[in-house]
Design brief:
With 108 residues, the chain is mainly α. It has one domain (26-107). Helix content is 42%, strand content 0%. It has helices at 2-9, 29-40, 63-72, 93-107. Helix 2 (29-40) packs across helix 3 and helix 2 (29-40) runs parallel beside helix 4. It is globular, with a radius of gyration of 13 Å.
């Protein structure tokens, strides 16, 4: 609980629109990369496009983070099947760990 409170305080995580937090729920690619970008302190501008073949499916709220993650190399189109980000697909631990490691490398 303390780690969650700290992450909320730092602005890394937010609850859902209905006021819930859902600590046992899996997270989507869109949610995961948004948290990684918030944790990085990188500024996610409102870039309108990414190189992903399913760019139109990326939610408006997540697109700046996905764009920044792609721009900085935290994620790459080639890392995803058929070049699709699949924003609503559940993130694996490996995907999250890879994004976090790359984020930490670019911050150094």
């Amino acid at each position: 609980m303390k780690a969650v409170q700290q992450a909320v305080k730092l602005g890394i995580i937010h609850g859902y629109e209905d006021g819930t937090f859902r600590p046992n729920a899996n997270i989507t690619h869109a949610e995961m990369i948004s948290m990684v970008i918030r944790a990085s302190s990188l500024v996610a501008d409102n870039s309108p496009l990414t190189s992903f073949s399913d760019d139109a499916d990326i939610p408006k709220w997540a697109k700046p983070a996905v764009s920044k993650a792609e721009e900085t190399g935290i994620i790459n189109v080639g890392d995803f099947s058929n070049g699709k980000f699949a924003p609503q697909a559940m993130s694996t631990r490996a995907e999250a760990a890879s994004a976090i490691v790359r984020m930490l490398e670019i911050r150094e």
